Batch of 4 targets.
Target 1
Amino acid sequence: MNAVATKTRRRSAAFTVFLKEVRENLRDRRTLLSAFFTGPLLGPLLFVMLVNVQINQQLDKADKPLHVPVIGAQYAPHLVDALEEGGIVPDAPVADPGTAVRKQDADVVLRIGAGYGKAWRQGEPVQVEMFYDSSRQDTSSAVERVQKLVEAYARQQGAMRLVARGLSPGTAWPVQVAKRDQATPQSRAVLLFAMLPYFFVITLFMGGMYLAIDLTAGERERQSLEPLFANPVARWKILFGKLAAICLFSLASLAITLLAFAVVGHLIPAEKLGMELDLGWRFAGIVLLLMLPLVLLLASLQTLVAAFAKSYREAQTYVSLLMMVPLIPSALLAFLPIKAQAWMYAVPLLGQNLGIMRQLRGDGVGAAQLGLCLAGTLAAAAVAIGITVQMYRSERLAISG
């Protein structure tokens, strides 16, 4: 009977470790805040608030009269009248337009030269200078608005000059470009949510990070596994129990984030920008499926990296550096014009990024793409788990002290 009981205890060792770690970390406020509040709830709320502020600022500038200092307005009264009809309010001229823009005293400044009137009467080209700062994203709509009004006035006056000479206005534009934008309202939402895949990966990371650190370096410092296992237990069972606990917390964190985005996504006025945003249950289900193998991979990598540390603080440093790795595929897709190839879906992290972006654009994820993503990440997770198991079996890593 004793032998049977011992064998049963050994078989359930991994599950025992899993229950122990889940129970203990549910009492840890630091772990709960990191896994279930800081990233999953606070992150989406801040994200939506910032997007709303940015959208409302741009819409306010587009609808309200725009105050623009105009230098030399007396030289081009007809141009100034056309700007006023377009919602531009000419303000008093400034002494130094470049300084006014750099100091953010004005979004854009127009300067009309003294020779404008003479050149205009002689039918010669005239020049209007527009001062702005392209590094300020909040002024882009104002600059574009003023530029379009000036160009529209120039085209109108050019056409009138041709008509006065008995020529067709089309003579000046023998080739016209007909724009056919193939973007759908849903695909345009990618412009606002290009970093959303990285946010999901970081949520997974944060959900299990403190748990992974606590179950390696933390256990080593506290010597807390000795009283639990008086009988010899295979180290891989202890490891699997720990990994299961980390995966549970990571998945719970991701589920809370997806639920939060599904709710707060309705608060984003995307339709005002001609966009359509769908972060509902179908989107959440595809993201959760894509992320499942990544949960195992990140949990094993966090455990492996943290196991090298001799103290809790040292483990925090190592795992924090590991957090920079998921940024690479998101940065590549955000800043480089990469055309997705089939093999890319088999690359961990990159495949998840591509799949989430396709789902966000409304293109959907095909069965072949989904299979490659799951297979590639699961293979990487198996390798990472194998390396971690070998490390836990090594004599130099004392799990129980």
Target 2
Amino acid sequence: MKNRKYIIMAIFGATLIITSCSSNEKKTVADNSPAVTVVVNTVSEDNGSSNLSVSGKIEATKSANISTRMMGYVDKIYVKVGDKVQNGQLLMSVNNADVSAKLAQVNASILEAEAAFTNAEKDFNRFTILFQKNSASQKELDDITANYNMAKARLESAKQMKNGANAQMGYANIRAPFSGVVTNKFINAGDMANPGMPLLEVESPGQYQVLALVPESEILDIKSNTEVTVQIKALQQNIKGKVTEVSTSSKNTGGQYLVKVVLEKSDAQILSGMYATVKFPITSKTKISSVMIPIEAVVHNGQLTGVYTVSQSNTALLRWLRLGRTNGDKVEVLSGLSANEQYIVSAEGKLFNGAKIANQ
């Protein structure tokens, strides 16, 4: 019995030794995965600037989304994106078989109404002469007059129906509302066009404007006709502009007010959709220190936003953030990142939690 106890204890001890050795072997396994080359920056506080700067997007001053008021299949598209078009030029045709049939019926109605009106007019003239010679009664003249007026009304109604059919034919042949450039195409030949559905977008180049959103704390200081400076980062240029519209409601713009700035004409290669920073010549009321990071460093995962930071072991660590206002190409960090912390701006490979990194 005693020997049996010693044997069990020996087996248990051997098991502990094997487990301990296995654990030590796992701990000594080295991570040989290559390091991801990254660009690292250090968080610094932005104490605000003397002038108010807000972000905006450039668009053409004269722009139109072209649609049709009739339903039908697109027969042919005569232009493509980038084509220059003239005012009234045919851009697209929608199948108009129904409208053509209706127009043919209207033309037949007009011929019938014209024949009836001609006969009624002859009877009216003849009975008017007979009544003046006392050869027709007042009742006969009244009946002929009523028939004449009804024939005249039917003819006018048929002509108005033709005007309506011709207008529908115009909706089938879609033309340019002004001279410009086709900047977008939302449909292809053979697709079904519905009333009010955007089909093409045409812009008139040469005159551009910036739509900027101003916070409520600053909007009362923005006045129309104010001269401003617009910085276009993609072009590395500053262009003068003038405030033309200041919205008085933020109901549909998330609590911020829309301000429209028209740019002066210049030789800059401006394109619609470019981002710009509008600098108003007023003192910003927001003087609270804030943490600003580049928008390109922000990581999106569904509704969550974060940034990769650098851990003490020189690995990537994803940190979730709460973001605030956007200023140019930077965004304010309300929580989740402090001053003097390091974060990754860009990487040459795919980042994940725990990935080894190497500074560029």
Target 3
Amino acid sequence: MEVIDAVSIALFHIAEAEYEDYLRLATPHDLEFTSEEWKRHAGSKKLRRELHEQEKLKCDSEKRFAQHYEALERRSRRLRESYAEVQGLGHPRWALAATARIGEIYLHWPELLGLWNVGQVVKEEVGKYWGCEPNPMTYSSTDRAVEAFEICARLSQKHLISSEFTNICYRELALLDPDKYPPQYEVWNMNPATRTTRTTMVSTGPVDLMLQSLVSASKRPR
């Protein structure tokens, strides 16, 4: 178990570094998807020139957004595979931490993708793959996040694990489905009256986690 613990720590450390890089993949700025087609037939050279400029901006925006989407999707898939490798080793504490991270990756996909700043056509196209648009017939990234957080909660209960990552899972479940998972503000040390935003994308330093695990291992009876 100590060998599995050490290997799990190492792989989780590598995945955490990838996760931090992933969070830095910023959505392109100055995206513009407006195209006022009516200007084409308005009988005005000025309006036609304006439409031409709009179409150029739209084409450039779609190209840059597509590149961002592909990079983010590729990194997201690779990152989930890295955390899945940690899960596969079967160490309860690190499997739970990896599962929490997978849940966060799914949960914040639309946010990192920047879907709130793009045109409706682009939203619909992306939604076909990830279900980012509200659609009861779509298995969305939020559904996947809930699944991951529920697995995390079950691992916590089964192995009596309490950590920063169990807090992430219970907090997000309470926000996503408060009827099924009532908020536990006393556990989060948070005043609900003053709480305005979700504390997302928590990055617990891998070095700190490694030290904690090594200290725990050193205290085990020989």
Target 4
Amino acid sequence: MPDYTYLLVGGGMTADAAAQALHEADPAGSVALVGAEPHPPYDRPPLSKALWKGEPEEKIWRKTAATGAVLHLGRRITAIDPRAHTATDDRGTRYRFKKLLLATGGAPRRLPLESDQIIYFRTLDDYRRLRALASESVRFAVIGGGFIGSEVAAALRMQQRDVTMLVPEAGLGARVFPADLAAFLVDYYRGKGVTMRMGEGMAGLDRRAGSCVVRTTVGSELVAEVLVAGLGIQPGVELAEQAGLRVDNGILVNEACRTSQPDIYAAGDVANFENRALGARLRVEHEDNANTMGRTAGLNMAGRATPYHHLPFFYSDLFELGYEAVGDVDARLETVADWKERFREGVVYYLKQGRVRGVLLWNTWGQVDHARALIAEPGPFTPQDLKGRLPL
């Protein structure tokens, strides 16, 4: 039975960040990573951003092996025995560990049809498939108007492909952006040549003559050869549930990233953590959280007490526009926009009972730490107080 000091379950950015921290904090400890993909850890954001703009694929690799970690790739842990400190993979191999990290991320929500014409854009292999198809003259439909859907539609259109977005909301990114900004983005994407079908959701899905046929909620059809589904993910909590850990919208962890079992930790997309600045539990599915929380978990596993009080940010590129966002950016909150140039450059503040809960930095750069500091202030703030507050 392979015997390791530290066992990392998951092969993404979070596991790599933990491996780097473990190598730093306990170089004598043995580390193993078990990942379902055949590839070692890599940066995911370039899959929908920089790689479409010409960045070479070799720049995404994380160099996990340089930490000395043993990589067991193309394998999936299927069971954990917390008492015996063992984990079993899908080939029947059992691993012994002293400390274990669950960095299992999440699985894409799937459409009600099994077809190789549907791409759930999450992995390097998904990118490679879509990139190959983007060299062909086929029709693409992007289902969903959120984070991934918006980026993929822009990426495909930059390759001069025929792209239609099917979005159930009235605006693009409507759950995050204020209604007027979400409406502007619809027009902006139309101006870039993307066919925008707004207020239409999916009611059914069939195949017909080599194409996918989406039946929509307004009684219409959308026909395309390739569907890209950007419907979000479901956190990968199955192992945690099997091991008897506390689960509620992810795996519940304390400020040390420790689960309800003292020698098992969780971090990244799958972890539900308490954030002091917002006074609330969060589960964050973005790069900054993966890197920072993965590192914090690794340090704590190695005995270097490090509380996770970080407020993660995320970012996106939408053709020539881009943004960074910090905290709770929820369109249902009160929003205050401070535009330098309307919809092209500015800051949107998200308030609840006079307190800033989130900040959207729209084509405004280098202000993430200032936004975090503002969210940490108790307020109360009036809309007038926030005019000109950022950038500093």
